[in-house]
Amino acid sequence: MDPSIIPLAGISVGIIVPLAVFFWLYHEAKNKNETILEISKNLDDPIKLERLLRIFDERKKEPVDYRRGGLITIFVGVGVYFLGLFAMGSFFEGVGLLVGFIGIGTMAAGYIYPNTSEEITKVVEDFEER
Fold first, then answer.
1. For the chain, which residues make up each domain, given as ranges?
2. DSSP H helical ranges for the chain
3. Spatial distance between the Cα atoms of 9 and 39, rounded to a whole number of angstroms
4. What distance in Å separates the CA atoms of residue 72 and residue 46, rounded to the nearest whole number?
5. H or E stretch at 65
């Protein structure tokens, strides 16, 4: 077997994977839009159509919960640290600590910046009381 095949395969994978992901995401969005159009043709009530569109847009309106993401990142860091401690070596211990500290920073950002409308309203009301 020719040894130059391995670098060519690596380069090809680096090109093929992003193109495949782009193709997949494009067709997923296209099929979703076509489905919405088909459903909207059968709906007579504009209120039902607005409700349907809100269902698809709800994910985008929800704010990012930094506290949840930070907690998940902390435990990923702890897991990588213990992997390095028990099996892989000191490099993974350092990576685990880095990921854990990134999680702590993310969690701190979640407590500093309010993310839900109720929290924002509470912060504004507390500020107005002063």
1. 1-62, 63-130
2. 5-42, 46-61, 66-83, 90-112, 117-129
3. 44
4. 41
5. none
